[in-house]
């Protein structure tokens, strides 16, 4: 059974020194193509992906990239409400892949490898993480936010595989997490002070994180360690954009 994909294509164009700013970050130009087009190419070429839905807050007409999606849904609500709109179109059966539109080096192989890894584990939520060593080896100039546990430093990925029914059942809790993700005191109330302290002291284990996430989300959650740094490095700043432009230009040169 193929997995449907929801692509988050919102995000304000802030922190970028560019002319002719697009209405959303997903449309930043890289190599003469909007950033989202690379992501949609990867999804379209994956053997594991079914329908592709793009969630965007701006109505943009006559864009070539739109032909790569099965449906464009225009949204003006919270992240979880927007995702729910996407699932209303896709239906409640099976899993879905939630993908950020600002990872233009994503490939079909990366997607297929991640889905293959998730197929070996029984869970409702699968989240990829990448070690600091792997990121720095592939993207030495990238500045990422890392979390530290007993066995090393990791950064989170920008794709996540979720069971549709589990998401819809626990939407309120997911909304709470999204709403408070940048409010430390509120997050302590969700995660628990003892867990936060162990995390800060780097004394927490991966198994503990999975168990806590499963409890919070009321769904069995598993972490997938991947060597594909491309899922952990997104475009947030001007220096990220310049780095990706150089990477994409080099990649295109090699393919000639």
Give short descriptive properties of this protein.
single chain, 256 residues, alpha/beta, Spore Coat Polysaccharide Biosynthesis Protein SpsA, Chain A, 9-stranded mixed β-sheet, two-stranded antiparallel sheet, 10 helices, 11 strands, 40% helix, 21% strand
3D structure, described in words:
The protein has 256 residues and is α/β, with parallel strands linked by helices. The chain has one domain (3-254): Alpha-Beta Complex (Spore Coat Polysaccharide Biosynthesis Protein SpsA, Chain A), CATH 3.90.550.10. It has ten helices and eleven strands. The strands form two sheets. Strands 1, 4, 5, 6, 7, 8, 9, 10 and 11 form a nine-stranded mixed beta sheet that branches. A hairpin with a 2-residue loop joins strand 2 (29-30) and strand 3 (33-34). Helix 2 (79-90) packs antiparallel against helix 6. 34% of the residues are buried.
If you consult CATH, what is the topology? Answer: Spore Coat Polysaccharide Biosynthesis Protein SpsA, Chain A
State the fourth-level CATH superfamily: Spore Coat Polysaccharide Biosynthesis Protein SpsA, Chain A
- Shape label: globular
Which regions are unreliable across 5 or more consecutive residues at pLDDT < 50?
Answer: none
Q: How large, in whole angstroms, is the Cα Rg?
A: 18 Å
Helix count, per DSSP? 10
What is the β-strand count?
11
Tell me the major beta sheet.
9 strands, mixed
**Helix proportion:** 25-40%
Q: CATH class, anyone?
A: Alpha Beta
Mean pLDDT: 86
Give the H and E element order: EEEHEEHEHEHEEEHHHHHEH
* CATH architecture title: Alpha-Beta Complex
Briefly note the structural class of the backbone. Answer: alpha/beta
How many domains make up the coordinates? 1
Strand fraction: 15-25%
Span from first to last CA? Answer: 35 Å
């Amino acid at each position: 059974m193929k997995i449907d994909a929801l692509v988050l294509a919102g995000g304000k164009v802030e922190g970028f020194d560019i002319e002719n700013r697009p209405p959303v970050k997903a449309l930043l130009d890289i190599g003469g193509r909007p950033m989202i087009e690379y992501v949609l190419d990867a999804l379209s070429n994956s053997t594991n992906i079914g329908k592709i839905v793009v969630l965007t807050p701006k109505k943009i007409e006559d864009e070539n990239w739109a032909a790569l999606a099965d449906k464009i849904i225009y949204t003006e609500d919270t992240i979880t409400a927007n995702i729910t709109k996407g699932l209303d179109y896709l239906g409640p059966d099976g899993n879905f892949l939630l993908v950020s539109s600002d990872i233009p080096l994503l490939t079909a192989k990366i997607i297929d490898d991640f889905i293959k890894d998730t197929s070996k584990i029984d869970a409702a939520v699968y989240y990829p993480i990448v070690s600091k060593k792997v990121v720095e080896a592939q993207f030495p100039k990238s500045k990422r936010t890392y979390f530290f546990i007993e066995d090393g430093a990791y950064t989170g990925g920008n794709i996540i595989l979720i069971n549709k029914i589990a998401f819809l059942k626990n939407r309120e809790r997911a909304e709470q997490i999204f709403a408070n993700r940048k409010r430390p005191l509120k997050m302590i109330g969700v995660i628990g002070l003892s867990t936060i302290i162990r995390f800060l002291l780097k004394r927490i284990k991966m198994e503990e994180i999975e168990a806590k996430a499963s409890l919070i989300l009321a769904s069995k959650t598993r972490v997938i360690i991947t060597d594909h740094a491309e899922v952990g490095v997104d475009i947030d700043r001007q220096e990220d954009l310049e780095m990706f432009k150089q990477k994409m230009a080099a990649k295109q040169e090699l393919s000639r």
